[in-house]
């Protein structure tokens, strides 16, 4: 990618359908006090807690102008990545998704995704960042995957996000989906930092920009992706928020398909988002596959992740789920060993959370 994207000439805003927010939960913020240094740190595992704590000090009702807000939010931070994170987190804290109101975002505290993206771009400009509002299609709430025998639908636009230059690298972020998600019919304000740290390929699974240059995927990496490849891509397993909260990488989740064929051995694999993240027992939970009443734990493998090979009898139906043990006998289960988990099944009370789900066929 060039050092800076060309700034397009002004043009009328495209018409697109009413945008929708993301539809599943996302991860919480982590914490430490170190500053971000793009040359020797990984944005995936770096903690922005000090930035988030500062951004939370400026509730919307105290703000007098967007210009002053941008300065207040970003003044303490030397890097563009930290400045962008402060804007991203402030929007989560202070703006709520409301399909009925798209104007006066600062005054009302309500916005659709176009309002989030537009306000982020305005704050970024006053903060000295180069940021663009990007419009296109988002696979958000209400999206249903197409089957291979269905015709390719015409390209459409229903969403908006941002492309931001951070410390020499263009990155994509979605402040709307980062702020919260629809839980049933209700919008829940819950921070989703995955939409600040996603790679262009990960981001592109659920976003398709009208201008293909905003995919940020080079020819060498298979870009740009066509509308047909994007919209007709088969759905993978259903991934829940805890999968991201626990810092796992969806791109390496196996099986990668939604459906699992019964009548044979199935290999399950999960990997952390980056190599810097701990796989030590003390820093993790027990992750297990549930098929009916059978619970099979995943164990650390030689490839840097967790895996389990499970035989699924022919004719078995229903769902297969990946879970993590959250509590055992009412206590936090982080650090629980696989052996203690096996010995505790049916003997001790356990609680668990869902990470993802497949369907047996």
From TrEMBL:
Question: Where is the stretch described as Disordered?
Answer: 1-36
Domain (Transglutaminase-like) ranges: 105-177
Indicate, by first and last residue, each region the UniProt record lists as having compositional bias (Pro residues).
1-11
Q: Locations of Acidic residues compositional bias?
A: 12-36
**Top-rank lineage group of the source organism:** Eukaryota
User: What Pfam families does the entry give?
Assistant: Transglut_core (PF01841)
One cellular component GO annotation, for this chain's record? cytoplasm
Q: What InterPro entries does the database record attribute to this sequence?
A: CAP/Cytokinesis_protein, Papain-like_cys_pep_sf, Transglutaminase-like
Q: What is this protein called?
A: Transglutaminase-like domain-containing protein
């Amino acid at each position: 990618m060039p050092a800076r994207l060309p700034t397009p000439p002004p043009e009328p805003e495209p018409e697109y359908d009413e945008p929708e927010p993301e539809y599943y939960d996302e991860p919480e913020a982590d914490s430490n006090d170190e500053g971000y240094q793009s040359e020797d740190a990984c944005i995936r595992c770096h903690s922005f807690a000090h930035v988030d704590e500062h951004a939370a000090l400026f509730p919307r009702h105290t703000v007098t102008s967007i210009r002053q807000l941008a300065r207040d939010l970003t003044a303490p931070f030397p890097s563009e990545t930290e400045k962008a994170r402060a804007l991203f987190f402030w929007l989560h804290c202070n703006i709520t998704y409301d399909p009925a109101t798209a104007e006066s975002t600062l005054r009302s505290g309500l916005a659709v995704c176009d309002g989030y993206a537009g306000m982020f771009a305005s704050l970024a400009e006053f903060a000295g960042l180069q940021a663009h509002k990007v419009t296109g299609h988002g696979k958000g709430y209400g999206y249903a995957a197409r089957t291979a025998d269905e015709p390719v639908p015409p390209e459409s636009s229903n969403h908006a996000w941002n492309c931001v230059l951070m410390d020499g690298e263009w990155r994509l972020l979605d402040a709307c989906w980062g702020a919260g998600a629809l839980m049933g019919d209700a919008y829940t304000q819950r921070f989703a930092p995955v939409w600040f740290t996603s790679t262009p390929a990960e981001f592109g699974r659920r976003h398709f920009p009208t201008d293909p240059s905003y995919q940020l995927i080079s020819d060498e990496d298979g870009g740009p992706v066509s509308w047909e490849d994007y919209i007709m891509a088969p759905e993978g397993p259903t991934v829940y928020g805890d999968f991201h909260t626990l810092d796992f990488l969806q791109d390496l989740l196996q099986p990668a398909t939604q459906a699992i064929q019964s009548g044979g051995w199935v290999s399950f694999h999960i990997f952390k988002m980056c190599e810097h993240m701990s796989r030590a027992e003390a820093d993790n939970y027990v992750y297990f596959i549930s098929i009916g009443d059978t619970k099979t734990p995943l164990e650390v493998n030689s490839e840097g992740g967790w895996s389990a090979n499970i035989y699924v009898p022919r004719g078995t139906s229903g769902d297969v789920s990946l879970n993590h043990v959250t509590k055992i006998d009412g206590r936090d289960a982080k650090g629980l060993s696989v052996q203690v988990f096996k010995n505790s099944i049916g003997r001790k009370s356990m609680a668990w959370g869902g990470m993802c789900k497949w369907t047996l066929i």
